[in-house]
Amino acid sequence: MTTKRRTLELELLAPARDADIGIEAINHGADAVYIGGPGFGARASAGNSVADIDRLCRHAHRFGAKIFVTLNTILRDDELEPARQMAWDVHRAGADALIVQDMGLLAMDLPPLQLHASTQCDIRTLEKARFLAQSGFDQIVLARELTLPQIQQIASALPDTVIEFFIHGALCVAYSGQCYVSHAHTGRSANRGDCSQACRLPWTVTDTQGRIVAHEKHVLSMKDNNQSANLAALVDAGVRSFKIEGRYKDMGYVKNITAHYRQLLDEVLEGRPGLRRASSGHTRLFFTPDPDRNFNRGSTDYFVNGRQIDIGAFDTPKHAGLPLGWVTGLGASHVDVQLEDGVGALNNGDSITWFDLQGELRGVQINTAQALEAGEAPSRFRVEPKEPVAQLTDLRKGTVLMRNRDMAWERTLRKASSERRIAVDLHLAETADGLCLSATDEDGHHAQATLSHALQPAQQPERAEAALREGLAKLGTTVFEAREVSLALRQPWFVPAGALNALRREAIAALEAEREACRERLRPTPPVEPPVPYPEDTLSYLANVYNRKARDFYARHGVQVIEAAYESHEALGESSLMITKHCVRYSLSLCPKQAKGVTGVQGTVKAEPLTIRHGDETYTLRFDCKPCEMHVVGRLRKNVIQQARREEKLAAATAQPIEFYRTRPAAPRPGA
């Protein structure tokens, strides 16, 4: 399959923590799944064996769906060869592409797999996107911070490259690949799949005079991404792969969110005859998808439609849940609840939440829930929480309640909640010595099977014809569903059920074998030769160059000064530990641009630095107003440096230290 054909397809790309979740993502409508292999994925605790990758690939390929394996951490020199071997292992298991961050891999003997540029590559500009496309990447995921016009500019300039964009899930506040707070604080590197998520902590913000601007607020915590309302606009802008975040998420999340976007994308496709979905089959759901029922911090479309003031989840990084009702009374061991109109019944095991008087989210799980009135839809319940009522902070009569765990909903998604079928037309015809069954699927693949059998007239012709049609359409647990059954017979014949079943099974098996024989693996695009120049000739630690091959890659592409990655611990002073499009000043209505034209305010608000503090951690917020970006500035903790030095001494006996180009190479002497 060529890349040009793929740019005519819309791909729903779902996450999978493991193979079982990946299989359900396919069943609920995903055209592709991204999943971690045995190692080197940007979710350290979401690895999978090669055998599980193989199992997932076999299921996905039956529908023409694809499996992309994440190999998107930055790598030490001693990890390059194991990473290369893993790439070959997952290729043999059937993987269709590798998702990559470390450019050192491009200098290695990789299998003939497509390379997709990870979100960690921080693709914000046309120049960066074009460079990656010319360096061998067939699919690139753009930064989540881009607007529709910026996306369209890149997509228009790269018509043969598949443009991928995140449409749902948790948002990293930093440009992906540009956050080092976790490593500076704990030694756990986000670029190596082990982020400590300091951005979700509560921070106290003070100005240059020490005045508190915000107290214990989650000012670096973003709401969750939800582009449900923007899919058509993203298609028009040139996005072709629609990515759902969540390789740590559970089965219920993946089922629900995949099904939600499958329905929305199918609606978009109905109005765009020049585009098609990127895999085969139709998904039939046994539930109504609702993204609000999964863990979320509220929703935002981030910067797609320009800068918004309400992108932050400053009050809590937790899932508050959906509106439930309010407290009508309390006893020593129970709470009486009145449900809002239209809210489903409370269940044993549900969890309820509320905000205390300080605005902090509180919650408790319900042990038992008993209706206080008869009928099919009771609205009053008495619940016994798992904790003593007296210990439930600020829970009192009149308190507004939410529900962030609904056991009825969870039970729905634990069961079989969808089926996916490929349409097939079946045609039964007579032959000289019996019958021939032809099967043609929705993609045009064709197969047939024959049955040598003496044909006998049926005693009840109408009943016999109905039996033939019904028997042929019984496709059971196959991936097919009969769309049309036609008979080309001189008369209805009597065919024993066993013989008809065997004929059908043989034809369907031949059709599935034909589909597999015709399946083409994604072919990688070779890099442009000679190597194209990188957009810049100097790279700081922000380029995440962590091994010799990555260093040499950039040198071949014309970069003259190459700093080591932050994880190399060469940047010991104050550094930008996070670069983000989110601006705390703007979100707190302290941006100088917001004050323009406001009488008495214009000119008095300046983009001076702010300080944020959590425990013994203090960072400076600096504001770069020209690109409208914020930098979180700090330095490595001493214990992180000490631990790194100990590890370096242990490795010194077997590893050669990496030398980087800290100055521009001297120009060669004339005649040399």
Automatic annotation (TrEMBL):
<protein>
    <submittedName>
        <fullName>U32 family peptidase</fullName>
    </submittedName>
</protein>
<dbReference type="InterPro" id="IPR051454">
    <property type="entry name" value="RNA/ubiquinone_mod_enzymes"/>
</dbReference>
<dbReference type="Pfam" id="PF12392">
    <property type="entry name" value="DUF3656"/>
</dbReference>
<dbReference type="Pfam" id="PF01136">
    <property type="entry name" value="Peptidase_U32"/>
</dbReference>
<dbReference type="InterPro" id="IPR001539">
    <property type="entry name" value="Peptidase_U32"/>
</dbReference>
<dbReference type="InterPro" id="IPR020988">
    <property type="entry name" value="Pept_U32_collagenase"/>
</dbReference>
<feature type="domain" description="Peptidase U32 collagenase">
    <location>
        <begin position="402"/>
        <end position="515"/>
    </location>
</feature>
